[in-house]
């Protein structure tokens, strides 16, 4: 009975890793190629191949077609985390993501900051 619960937890972990890698792969595909160079990161091709193989590997593990190679699954998870934590924010910063449109860099939450004047 305890092993059944343990197996269901692993299924949820496998699904989570697959979805996480798929979202990262789609985000890597959506970014512009020149943004990777501007952010001084690896190329778009590099990240899409690494994350694409991670999605493929996680999919095969989920369906039980490939097993016993957990180190590859962990390596893919690490690559996905690196993309989401390091590369994606750098791409957003270079591409102008996260900034408000139409505002100035000196605008505060209640309007422009005038330096106390």
UniProtKB/TrEMBL annotation:
The chain crosses the membrane at residues 12-33, 45-65, 71-91. The keyword Membrane applies. Keywords: Membrane, Transmembrane, Transmembrane helix. InterPro entries: DUF2516 (IPR019662). Residues 103-117 have a biased composition (Low complexity). Residues 94-117 are annotated as: Disordered. This is DUF2516 family protein. It comes from Streptomyces antimicrobicus. The lineage of its organism: Bacteria, Bacillati, Actinomycetota, Actinomycetes, Kitasatosporales.
């Amino acid at each position: 009975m305890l092993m059944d619960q343990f197996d269901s937890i692993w299924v949820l972990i496998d699904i989570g890793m697959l979805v996480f890698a798929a979202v990262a792969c789609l985000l890597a595909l959506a970014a512009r190629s020149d943004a990777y160079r501007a952010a001084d990161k690896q190329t778009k091709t590099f990240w899409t191949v690494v994350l694409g193989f991670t999605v493929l590997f996680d999919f095969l593990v989920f369906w039980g077609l490939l097993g016993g190679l957990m180190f590859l699954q962990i390596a893919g998870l690490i690559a996905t985390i690196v993309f989401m934590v390091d590369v994606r924010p750098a791409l957003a910063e270079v591409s102008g993501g996260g900034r408000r449109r139409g505002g100035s860099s000196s605008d505060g939450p209640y309007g422009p900051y005038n330096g106390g004047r």
